[in-house]
């Protein structure tokens, strides 16, 4: 046999010589037949393949592809088939597979896939799949395949069910793995048609095919909206729900259950719980899903065997996604899928699972911190800490030093690790961005800084300094983004949550704010940030957070150089007045002929989110007046007193609730005490009358006392 192989290689070399020296097409064609026969037999090594390429290059295969003739007694596609065989041979060399001469043949490859395939054409289809697979593996390949229509061609080839159509599905999986967003953006209808077939097959299958499809389907479930935007997508979701309910309701082995859980997680990532129908069956299925996920997490993490955990990381990460959905559904009050009894049961089950997550994280070694699974574990724990503040408190307190250190390390160094498929709800294609653990821990930290013990631990571990650095970074990200109105970004949400954390510290640990230079740096950022942000009305909630935090910290840091009447400080307090003064207006009262006090239209949609901040801001502004002697001048320059007097004079007192009266009075009293000019403005606008009308006893007394003192001084 070795001799036969040697003879064939010798023949092949002679053919190559003929190819180089051929005087006409017939000689070249005869030699080419022998070459392609050897290529198809798989007898060409890398060296010989390069010799073939050197002998004929791309020019000859290109001529074959476009030739309209065929040798006598040969099928009409003979030349085309030979050309494709040669290109398939060349494509086994990665360098040649990415060559522009191969990439510009992609439309031809697509045409072959879409053409009717006779029995004697199957080798052409196989060669095309080989070429496309090789192109996909190159750097430029995926982009070229998407832009030149290969996704649509592969979808059609798979749906037609012709020769080797399963290879079309495999190629689609590969393309979606590296360019999912671009594929769906360009070819959503075709991909939905494939998903429709896959989901139908999944629902109908009664054998192992069902579990094999569990492995394939997640790649075809987009993170973008198509699934919930049209009837075809909704039908796919319905079939997938029914198929999964059938699978997970049966007795399964580990190897069968894991793919089903991963499929369910991919659906949750794409659509939340929208794919699960309301009603008894849907609620039982959801509870079962979360229950199975919690059991899997406990089995894997409570007594972690390093080898076993390593093999289970992907499915446990999928379980984390299902647990996060469980948290959200247990908290949902409007149109809940779960009944209250189910919610209570699931919260207890999830508490045990999160206990296992904490136990696992306490075993993590320093060299394991770059593992994406650690990130996924911290993220899901962050989701639990954000919502459930009473359970596992002691265990979480003990874990806080690790969480702060982990978040700090990722923030400082930038993590090169790429998330596991379910670790990030939104991933950036082809990137290995640093993982932002702090973003997921912030809501939990906000709750914890309101309590003595965890707050002391966070302070001892240096969390305030880390959070201040993170705040500065996130502020830079926000200001570099478009100023056009857009949905709330994770950056803006993080900044709002950090304001909540710093507010907690300002209220509960003022000495820390006073002595830690971190907060002086933060104060500087707030002074320059608010005037810039406030005019952008779509950032009103964040502006409210910045204003209130700045005012609260100014009371504590009143002695700092930055607050001694500097231009930046004046601009900040001027912006704070605009935020506070523009919150209420006088508007027609439908129940009477007069005017009533109301939240201004610009604030109405955000008022639920900012009302508490507004009241706290009014209180803090009043508290700053005795500490910063230059503040009354800012209030006068902004004509705040005149505006407030006019507002209170216009509206019916019954339309101003007690809490508002208290807030207005606090500011008016402090300004009246601090400045004769402010008193004069209030009195000249009938301040005594409306102070009496609104029951502002403290303001009445202040105006009367100060007025009496002025008369006495005048008499002397």
Structure, briefly:
This is Neurochondrin. This protein is mainly alpha-helical and 716 residues long.
Say what the CATH topology of the domain at 516-705 is. Answer: Leucine-rich Repeat Variant
**Cα gyration radius (Å):** 35 Å
Number of separate helices: 37
Secondary-structure-based class equals mainly alpha
The second-level CATH architecture of the domain at 516-705 is: Alpha Horseshoe
The helix content, as a percent range, equals: over 70%
Organism: Geospiza fortis (Medium ground-finch)
Family: Belongs to the neurochondrin family.
Pfam families: Neurochondrin
Protein name: Neurochondrin
Which secondary structure elements does this structure contain, and how are they paired or packed?
Elements: H1 2-21, H2 25-40, H3 46-56, H4 59-66, H5 78-91, H6 94-97, H7 100-103, H8 106-114, H9 122-136, H10 141-147, H11 150-160, H12 165-204, H13 209-216, H14 226-229, H15 231-248, H16 254-271, H17 280-301, H18 306-331, H19 340-362, H20 372-387, H21 393-413, H22 437-448, H23 452-460, H24 463-480, H25 490-508, H26 510-515, H27 517-533, H28 540-556, H29 567-581, E1 584-588, E2 595-599, H30 601-604, H31 607-624, H32 631-637, H33 640-650, H34 658-674, H35 676-684, H36 687-693, H37 697-715
Antiparallel strand pairs: 1-2
